[in-house]
Amino acid sequence: MTTSSAANITNDEVDFSKYDQDQVEFMKEACIILDENDKPIGRASKKTCNVFLFNSKNELLLQQRASEKITFPDCFTNTCCSHPLHIESELVEEDQLGVRRAAQRKLLQELGIRPEQVPLDKFVYLTRIHYKAPSDGLWGEHEIDYILFIKADVDLDINPNEVQSTKYVTKEELKEMIATANEKGVKITPWFSLIDKTLLYKWWDNLDDIESQKDHKTIHRF
């Protein structure tokens, strides 16, 4: 899965009182530290995998992260960024079952999507990306992310502490949104921007044959 960090600081050096306390609790989750080749080397908080959910019209569900989020608040991004934990059920590497369980858990937590609407066997693991990005000068991310696609029509019941808005977009609508983001003051998460610029549309063009897009050997370095 991935790693994510608050620079080279410890929790004792951070004044958490200025942050939303629900989000602070999430930062305490024990996650998996990896080396640059995706090999587990320890545990800490916290890490992410990226879920892209499409409806039956092949429209992508975006979310806008809540203002309360500690990293990248108010930014638009892919459907969900799940956080695989250092727990037995989410450490399972066979068929990326731990990744899928984390994605399913976080879709419920953030967007209220019931597990039966996103069965574990419907998630398609495509590939991995390795990237790093600062957030606000204190917090940042340095991650290896698993990319999961799923096609499903779902019911949403968003958690406002996690998500402030959602929208489905076509390829053309997303391209326009990204192209005009700066002039309209729309913020985009760095990982989603990177994926949009490099890999997303190739996958999207092959959404109805998504199995053909799997690349489990490569870690795309950004």
TrEMBL record:
<dbReference type="InterPro" id="IPR011876">
    <property type="entry name" value="IsopentenylPP_isomerase_typ1"/>
</dbReference>
<keyword id="KW-0414">Isoprene biosynthesis</keyword>
<protein>
    <recommendedName>
        <fullName>isopentenyl-diphosphate Delta-isomerase</fullName>
        <ecNumber>5.3.3.2</ecNumber>
    </recommendedName>
</protein>
<keyword id="KW-0413">Isomerase</keyword>
<feature type="domain" description="Nudix hydrolase">
    <location>
        <begin position="44"/>
        <end position="194"/>
    </location>
</feature>
<keyword id="KW-0443">Lipid metabolism</keyword>
<dbReference type="GO" id="GO:0009240">
    <property type="term" value="P:isopentenyl diphosphate biosynthetic process"/>
</dbReference>
<keyword id="KW-0460">Magnesium</keyword>
<dbReference type="GO" id="GO:0006694">
    <property type="term" value="P:steroid biosynthetic process"/>
</dbReference>
<dbReference type="GO" id="GO:0005737">
    <property type="term" value="C:cytoplasm"/>
</dbReference>
<dbReference type="InterPro" id="IPR000086">
    <property type="entry name" value="NUDIX_hydrolase_dom"/>
</dbReference>
<dbReference type="Pfam" id="PF00293">
    <property type="entry name" value="NUDIX"/>
</dbReference>
<dbReference type="GO" id="GO:0046872">
    <property type="term" value="F:metal ion binding"/>
</dbReference>
<comment type="similarity">
    <text>Belongs to the IPP isomerase type 1 family.</text>
</comment>
<keyword id="KW-0444">Lipid biosynthesis</keyword>
<keyword id="KW-0752">Steroid biosynthesis</keyword>
<comment type="pathway">
    <text>Isoprenoid biosynthesis; dimethylallyl diphosphate biosynthesis; dimethylallyl diphosphate from isopentenyl diphosphate: step 1/1.</text>
</comment>
<keyword id="KW-0479">Metal-binding</keyword>
<dbReference type="InterPro" id="IPR015797">
    <property type="entry name" value="NUDIX_hydrolase-like_dom_sf"/>
</dbReference>
<dbReference type="GO" id="GO:0004452">
    <property type="term" value="F:isopentenyl-diphosphate delta-isomerase activity"/>
</dbReference>
